[in-house]
Amino acid sequence: VSFSQKTYAARGQEHEHPLAKQLFANMERKKSNLSVAADVATKAELLLLADKVGPYICVLKTHIDIVEDFDMDLVAQLQALAEKHDFLIFEDRKFADIGNTVKLQYGGGIYRIADWAHFTNCHVIPGEGIIQGLAEVGMPKGRGLLLLAEMSSKGMLATGAYTDKNVEMAVKNEFVVGFIGSRRFTEDRDLITMTPGIGLHASGDALGQQYRTPETIVTKNGSDIIIVGRGIYGPGKDVAAEAQRYRDAGWAAYEKRLAK
Ligand code: S5P
């Protein structure tokens, strides 16, 4: 039986990676496969958004380098909100350099990502050394890595043999817990797919983003987590109400998949 036919709870119990276990348990507890992409420019906006969507999400996805007044107090406050609302943190850093360089970028610098982000991600364009470099920093801290096996944007180049290589590398590297992509990629190991480019109404934006529904992505394609940004906090939106709506839509799509 395919992993996408199993419950998140069962997959959590069977999983060998403690972080994946923690994530699946969280999803089951909160009845949520929703991650919010918090692409906002200030500390105050990020904290307010995290506090509002917190009850409805399993994962908060950050782009920490967007925040113009970043400091370590932001991290402390985000961690407090993660505790308060019971969610995990994913820094969407998209590393793409040689192993030695990403080690420095992941563990150090201003952001010290490995100290606070449960998940981060990378492109495998430099080859497998990028995974090894990130693993040297992240594994001892119990972190997990997602590979960008596909992207959501128009004309993206992560297709075919490149996507297949991502899957191959993911299966054999224990630091990898999943993918960014649009579907379930393999049955060789229980790797979690998180999918951005989710919208209940818009079909895209002016810069190449393309949106699909939770039903297509979760029910039909077997992806595990939906990542939603502007669909939740775009102009004039009631953030908590939208988060609840996307949470319910994502969970309904998952229940429909189990019933297939
Ligand atoms: O292929 C991708 C991969 C990612 S991680 N396409 C994406 O859009 N993303 C991220 O998902 C992107 O960086 C942004 O943070 C979020 C989508 O935001 P939205 O406002 O379009 O929902």
Automatic annotation (TrEMBL):
SUPFAM superfamilies: Ribulose-phoshate binding barrel (SSF51366). One of its GO terms (molecular function) is orotate phosphoribosyltransferase activity. Residues 33-245 form the Orotidine 5'-phosphate decarboxylase domain. Substrate binds at D39, K61, S152, Q209, G229, R230. Keywords: Decarboxylase, Lyase, Pyrimidine biosynthesis. Pathway: Pyrimidine metabolism; UMP biosynthesis via de novo pathway; UMP from orotate: step 2/2. Its EC number is 4.1.1.23. It catalyses: orotidine 5'-phosphate + H(+) = UMP + CO2. It is an enzyme of class 4 (lyase). One of its GO terms (biological process) is 'de novo' pyrimidine nucleobase biosynthetic process. Pfam families: OMPdecase. It comes from the Eukaryota. The active site is at D92, K94, D97. Belongs to the OMP decarboxylase family. NCBIfam families: pyrF (TIGR01740). PANTHER family: OROTATE PHOSPHORIBOSYLTRANSFERASE (PTHR19278), URIDINE 5'-MONOPHOSPHATE SYNTHASE (PTHR19278:SF9). This is Orotidine 5'-phosphate decarboxylase. It comes from Coemansia reversa (strain ATCC 12441 / NRRL 1564).
